[in-house]
Amino acid sequence: MGSGSVNNPNKEYHLEVDFVNKQNLEKSIEILQNLGVHVKSFQSSMYIKDGEEISKFLALIGAGKAVMSFEDIRIQKEMRGKVNRLVNCETANLNKTINASVLQISAIKKLQETGQFNKLDDNLKEIAILRLENPNKSLIELGQLLKDPLGKSGVNYRLKKIMEIADGK
Questions:
Q1: Helix ranges (DSSP H) in the chain
Q2: What is the pLDDT averaged over residues 91-101?
Q3: Which listed residue, of 2, 29, 104, 169, carries a Cα 20 to 30 Å from 94's Cα?
């Protein structure tokens, strides 16, 4: 009928079967689709590029050990992807927090240097002092340190107000 191959799933998902004639290709595709396996074709080849569909195909042809091996690799690959996404997201959030903190601290120091700091109301002074003492803390963490705790939006509002005053707005 034909011959086929499955790529190393650590790199990409690709199963391909080459057929000696078009009729065998079309009949095989029809059977597989009736069994719920989504396949595509090109010239005299049938191929699958989805991991789930490759597993279904291997199970249908009775390749149980291959399914287990394939799924093990697929699960590890998926977990590595999830971990990488979480790490990237956390890194982006930390960078955002640090960049915002640097701008806020710069504005606070500018107010101190120009003598405007003492003119701030007590709520703005309190958050400014906390920001200077805790440059790596998130807005939520800063809000929890306040005498009267505030949420993220309240802390953000106060720090933006400080920055506007420092910019002369």
A1: 22-34, 51-60, 64-113, 122-133, 139-145, 152-166
A2: 89
A3: 169
Distances from the Cα of 159 to the Cαs of 101, 102, 120, 163, in angstroms?
10, 12, 12, 6
| Sheet of 15-19, strand order | 2-6, 15-19, 45-48, 40-42
What percentage of the chain reaches a pLDDT higher than 90? 59
- The residue among 104, 115, 122 whose CA lies nearest residue 162 is 104
- Distance in angstroms (rounded) separating the CA atoms of residues 72 and 33: 25
pLDDT surpassing 60 at residue 1: no
- The contacts of residue 9 (CB under 8 Å, 6+ apart) are 51, 54, 70, 73, 74, 77
Q: What is the pTM of this model?
A: 0.58
Q: How far apart are CA 9 and CA 69, in angstroms?
A: 10
Q: From residue 93, how far is each of 2, 20, 66, 106, 112 by CA, in Å?
A: 52, 55, 40, 20, 28
**What SS3 class is residue 90?**
helix
